[in-house]
Amino acid sequence: MTAHTTAPAQPQMIFVNLPSTDIARARAFYAGLGFPFDERFCNSDSLMVGVSDTIHLMILDREKFASFSPCPVAPGGTVGALVCLSQPSAASVDAFVTRALVHGGRDNNKTQEAGDFMYGRSVCDPDGNVLEIMWMDVDRALKAWGMAA
Q1: What domain range is 135 assigned to?
Q2: Is residue 7 part of a domain?
């Protein structure tokens, strides 16, 4: 196998697929967080939620989700993935969590703090999918860890 030495023609995209038992409820939750939808890919069994130009959450009803998976879908109340979303500041982490709670999310009561360079919290969407929300000042973190910035 040879190494790929040239950059792709356009940025690579990522689609994080998450199962849902109620697409309308999921739409209300993610809309309440301020995320846009690509309506071309939204219907009764799926939503395309835009996180950035290259990152999207695909919220799929459990049956459609299962049709893509070679393994059984994890039952409700279990976790198969943690989706970590960055925020521009520690205060914006708290604001995101507040919006999530207002729109049907659940606070996981897990706060991660490291000095003055990292802060994070964790919430579940209404289907129990875990969203880790974090802020980190990379330069300060590297300095604190004894690494060059």
Answers
A1: 81-149
A2: no
